[in-house]
Amino acid sequence: MLHPSRIRFANAKTKPYCLSIVQKYDYENYLCSLLLPGSRRNFALALRAFNAELAQICDRSENLTQAKYRFQFWREIIEHLFDGSNDSSPHHTPLERELKEVLS
Q: Can you give the three-state secondary structure of 60-100, one letter per residue?
């Protein structure tokens, strides 16, 4: 089995973040992702980390308004990733940077 330290991500900060999210909140898919080859593994781990982030929004939010803002935050990120623009705006989270890399 491939050791997690050999998984390559967009940059060094995205690697531990995505791996730890998937390992902690979606362990079965974390193990399955380790069996995938190269870029498919990176994509799968980024997608699973994104899924885990979304799944936790309601649990981490104190009220409905806060949850709506968090969902809106991720919606805007996804829209930005798919709108085709190549602006140099900073990416706010390690997960956002990794999603941008694997979707490019």
A: HCCCHHHHHHHHHHHHHHHHHHHCCCCCCCCCCCHHHHHHH
